[in-house]
Specification:
The complex is a heterodimer of chains A (221) and B (239). Chain A is an all-alpha fold and 221 residues long. Chain A has one domain. Chain A contains 9 helices and no strands. By secondary structure, chain B is mainly alpha-helical. About 5% of the residues of chain B have low confidence. Classes of the chains: A mainly alpha (221), B mainly alpha (239).
Chain lengths: 221, 239
């Protein structure tokens, strides 16, 4: 556990000192969402209808953009070699890095989401559920993204490749995330969607760290 | 199974099996297609367009079957590190992607007269589309590395992660579809399919299956040959 905390501490320190990275992700999120009214027109009815989908898709892309930060730098400067020799299972190390990634890239997105929901004319009933769904869904995105980021280490054009690998795997989170918010806005029951999001998160928690560890090991062979 | 992990033994076996599989493919294909296109009755609702099914449905089955083959081969490759399993997984991917694409194209051609549009966000079509993306990602990752074993390993891990995800994606797409457009889709009439339609379908499915086996073995043979060439040219450049 102390190793988990030590790595988490290191990652957070690195992220805070490099600072701008997290801000860039949020800036991407905000700017992309703001582009949509220009694309589909300013009618409130249309914006309200597509608000949940636009926010989710954009959050997905934003969290994907920040994935190269997860392992790439450590891979290049060799610290990844040292981390695999840490006296703890590599899955635990990976989990710490993924948690740090979530804290520094997904949490700011969740914080920015209500503001963008206002801009997208989302009705007030959806706000709380949007936050809850994102809080349950984005950790899955980070976990699955970790597998993709580890797989493309050392690949040609890894940044483009990772999107092709993991976006299809993001589909379930997107579907249930959007449908929970839509249901809440329409005044329907939404707890089933949230529970499924939580279930997907639990499955991802079990599967993704070992898969990422396996991918890292074969990247360093 | 471990016995056939030896490339020489595999080559000997595939030399015998390939002509048989290819022959069966042709016979079954001609029989199934002839029966399906000429002798089977048109559907009472869909008329002659139902004949697209004899290509569409087997292609869909094979698209999914090839992914299962790929996942099984990837698991074997990761656990026992059989070089042939890597070759098999790599060889199955483009074939499976081809079948999936064929399924989507024929589905779209079928959709035009039946649903009046080339594309419907029907649950099945959508999950096949996602499956096609999984295939494309697999092939892109397998070819993204200069070191070929590294590509094989990475692709095998991706394939297994994808295999766990396929049922989840399927389930979520079904859920999404029933929420967004309930029953706008003409469904095939229940579980009872008339034998006059079922038999040509079975023949076509078997023919596709043998076609897949033939192609898989041929591609594995060429994969072995390519590995030999790589090894030889590697020796030469070192000498």
């Amino acid at each position: 556990m102390s190793i988990f905390l030590a790595i988490l501490d290191r990652e957070l320190r690195l992220a805070l000192r490099q600072g701008t990275d997290s801000l860039m992700v949020v800036a991407f999120f905000v700017v992309t969402v703001v582009l949509f009214p220009f694309g589909v027109g300013p009618e409130a009815a249309i914006l309200e209808r597509i608000a949940a989908g636009v926010l989710w898709v954009t959050a997905l892309l934003a969290s994907m953009l920040s994935l190269d930060r997860l392992f790439q730098q450590d891979y290049e400067d060799g610290s990844l070699d040292l981390l695999t020799r840490a006296p703890a299972s590599l899955s635990l190390v990976v989990s710490a890095k993924v948690v740090a990634h979530w804290l520094t890239s997904a949490l700011p997105l969740i914080a920015a989401a209500p503001l963008l929901a206002v801009l997208m004319q989302m009705r007030g009933d959806g706000f709380g559920i949007l936050l809850a769904a994102m809080a349950l869904g984005t950790p899955t995105l980070s976990l699955v993204g970790g597998v993709g980021a580890a797989l493309v280490l050392g690949a040609r054009r890894g940044g483009v490749l990772v999107s092709l690998l993991i976006l299809p795997l993001y589909v379930p989170v997107l579907i249930f995330g959007v449908s929970a918010v839509d249901a809440a806005v329409m005044g329907l029951a939404y707890d089933a969607q949230l529970k499924i999001l939580a279930a997907i998160l639990l499955v991802a928690l079990v599967i993704c760290p070992p898969a990422t560890a396996l991918a890292l090991r074969q990247a360093l062979e | 199974m471990h016995k056939y992990a030896n490339p020489t033994r595999f080559l000997r076996l595939s030399k015998i099996l390939v002509p048989w599989c290819a022959g069966l493919t042709v016979v079954l294909f001609v029989a199934g297609l002839g029966w399906g296109l000429v002798f089977s009755p048109p559907d009472y609702q869909q008329g002659e367009t139902v004949r697209i099914m004899y290509v569409h449905v087997p292609a869909a089955w094979l698209g999914m079957f090839a992914y299962m083959v790929m996942a099984a081969a990837s698991a074997v490759a990761l656990i026992w590190k059989h070089p042939l399993a890597d070759l098999a997984a790599r060889a199955a991917a483009p074939i499976g992607a081809g079948f999936t694409l064929l399924c989507l194209v024929t589905g779209s051609l079928w959709g035009k007269p039946m649903w009046g549009t080339w594309w419907v966000w029907d649950a099945r079509l959508t999950s096949m589309l996602v499956l096609l993306f999984l295939y494309l990602g697999y092939m892109a990752l397998a070819n993204a590395f200069d070191d070929i074993t590294r590509g094989n390993r990475a692709a095998a891990i991706l394939c297994l992660v994808g295999a766990v995800n396929v049922p989840i994606i399927k389930f979520s797409v079904d859920w999404w579809n029933t929420l967004h457009q309930p029953a706008s889709v003409v469904k095939m009439g229940g579980p009872a399919i008339d034998p006059a339609i079922l038999w040509p379908l079975v023949l076509m499915a078997l023919s596709f299956q043998f076609y897949f086996a033939t192609l898989l073995m041929l591609r594995m043979e060429s994969g072995i040959a390519a590995a030999k060439i790589r090894a030889l040219s590697g020796l030469e450049s070192r000498a």
